[in-house]
Amino acid sequence: MIEALETPKLISEAKEKMGKPLLEPREVNRVIFVGDTHTAVDITQTVFDKFYGDSDLVVFLGDYVDRGETGVENLGLITSKFLEDPSKLIMLRGNHESPLTNPYYGFLEEVTEKLGEASYDSFKEF
């Protein structure tokens, strides 16, 4: 499992890669779409364990955080897989990753408690 303290570093690395073209036109046969994992690190890990290896592309549709206490870790797990092979994983931002939503559903508080207030900026910009 990804530790909360690892996540800001992963996000920083991913932001660098996301600034570059990642997807070349290519044929894909098996695409997995994953939506609304909302802090469920166990569900996210199950998706990777059961489907990632056999798929050509995995698309996370956002809403990785809020509604639980492991949003930082869930986002870290998805980001770490992205960094392993950016051409195989797409991360879309959901409404729960928005700075407009974060104060209301718990993610801002989670980041502040686990990593300190200054760390929130890296999540906000991601």
| Percentage of residues in strands | 5-15%
Provide mean pLDDT, rounded.
Answer: 91
Rg over C-alpha atoms, rounded to the nearest angstrom: 14 Å
**Total strands:** 3
The count of domains is 1
> Ends: how far apart?
21 Å
Structural class: mainly alpha
Summarize the structure.
This protein has 126 residues and is mainly alpha-helical.
Descriptive notes:
By secondary structure, this protein is mainly α. It has one domain (4-14, 29-125): Metallo-dependent phosphatases (Purple Acid Phosphatase, chain A, domain 2), CATH 3.60.21.10. Helix content is 45%, strand content 9%. The chain has six helices and three strands. It has a three-stranded parallel β-sheet, covered by helices on one side. It is globular, with a radius of gyration of 14 Å.
Write the layout of secondary structure elements.
Layout: H1 7-18, E1 31-34, H2 41-52, E2 57-60, H3 71-84, E3 89-91, H4 102-105, H5 107-115, H6 120-125
Parallel strand pairs: 1-2, 2-3
What labels describe this entry?
3 strands, 3-stranded parallel sheet, mainly alpha, 126 residues, Purple Acid Phosphatase, chain A, domain 2, single chain
